[in-house]
């Protein structure tokens, strides 16, 4: 497994003349995207370091790989779609994966057309090749849910391709596969700038509020390292509040060092889009209504064997304690 690894903060720090050890926390992010800006703000602004945490950030490229890394002990915390915790639960895991802090609350993908359209109607995707995301993942399930909401059966009305690895979807479209593709930022905006594609719709505007990307850990970790989980969530909440109260330009200034291959104007545009559609959760609490919407989407996609109670796979106590303080 190829991982992009970023390590932040020192291994130790000194406070009032005494040496205080920081705790290393290994985070696996499903992809490296400006969709996760609050996490990067927390890292770059030193909010995690202030809590005594050293963040070892690994890009684990895809939901399956991210969950495999978590279950095998390769990472401590996964940043991935909440649906993955339900899949693990459906497989009868003895050490369940628990969602404890939400990062994003809408879909983060955009519908990109190969041709520039004067106007767009969802019916435009009928009868053409649609390059979707991985079957069973949040992007694909939300995409199908929205298409169906607009009267389109993606499996009957389009030539749906969903067997391409997550990391290769953009390059497949760039090389000529499909008339439409579902892409995350900043790839969507970069394609638009380069004339390779044109954003025609936002899945996030139509998805409703869902636990699209959350931080989760094995139940055993949350019991053993409850203090670390609370420190992590406290730093995250501080970052979420900072993002909520600052401009896209200010946020871009902070996170740009982690996106050296993305121009400043694209970075600002992407963050502006996500803020406008309220993609960034302003606090880490994953509530019951969002959980219900997630399972509605999963059921519609045929991926939910049985409804799972909110309290079974979501720990709200950590987020609630952090928000109240």
TrEMBL record:
Q: Which domain of life is it from?
A: Bacteria
Localization, UniProt: Periplasm
Recorded GO cellular component terms are: periplasmic space
* Keywords for the protein's UniProt record, in alphabetical order: Signal
Xref: SUPFAM superfamilies: Periplasmic binding protein-like II
The UniProt entry, under Pfam families, shows: NMT1_2 (PF13379)
PANTHER family (alphabetical)? ALIPHATIC SULFONATES-BINDING PROTEIN-RELATED, TAURINE-BINDING PERIPLASMIC PROTEIN
- Recorded protein name is ABC transporter substrate-binding protein
> What organism, scientifically named, is this protein from?
Bacillus wiedmannii
């Amino acid at each position: 497994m190829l991982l992009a690894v970023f390590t932040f903060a020192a291994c130790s720090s000194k406070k009032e003349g005494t040496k205080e050890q920081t705790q290393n926390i290994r985070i696996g992010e499903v992809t490296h995207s400006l969709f996760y800006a609050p996490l990067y703000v927390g890292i770059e602004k030193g909010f995690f370091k202030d809590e005594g945490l050293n963040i070892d950030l690994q890009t684990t490229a895809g939901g399956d790989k991210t969950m495999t890394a978590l279950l095998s002990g390769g990472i401590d915390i996964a940043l991935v779609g909440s649906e993955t915790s339900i899949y693990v639960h459906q497989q009868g895991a003895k050490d369940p994966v628990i969602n404890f802090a939400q990062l994003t609350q809408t879909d983060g993908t955009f519908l990109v057309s190969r041709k520039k359209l004067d106007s767009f109607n969802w019916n435009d995707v009928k009868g053409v090749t649609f390059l979707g995301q991985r079957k069973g993942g949040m992007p694909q399930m939300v995409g199908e849910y929205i298409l169906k909401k607009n009267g389109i059966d993606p499996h009957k009305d389009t030539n749906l391709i969903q067997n391409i690895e997550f990391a290769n979807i953009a390059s497949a479209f760039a090389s000529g596969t499909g008339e439409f593709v579902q892409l995350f930022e900043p790839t969507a905006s970069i394609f638009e700038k380069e004339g390779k594609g044109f954003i025609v719709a936002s899945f996030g505007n139509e998805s409703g509020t869902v636990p699209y990307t959350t931080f989760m850990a094995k139940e055993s970790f949350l019991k053993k390292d409850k203090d670390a989980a609370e420190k992590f969530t406290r730093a995250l909440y501080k970052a979420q509040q900072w993002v909520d109260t600052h401009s896209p330009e200010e946020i871009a200034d902070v996170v740009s060092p982690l996106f050296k291959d993305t121009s400043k104007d694209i970075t600002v545009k992407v963050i502006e889009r996500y803020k406008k559609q309220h993609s960034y959760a302003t606090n880490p609490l994953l509530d019951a209504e969002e959980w219900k919407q997630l399972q509605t989407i999963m059921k519609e996609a045929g991926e939910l064997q049985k409804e799972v109670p909110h309290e079974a796979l979501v720990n709200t106590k950590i987020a609630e304690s952090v928000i109240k303080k």
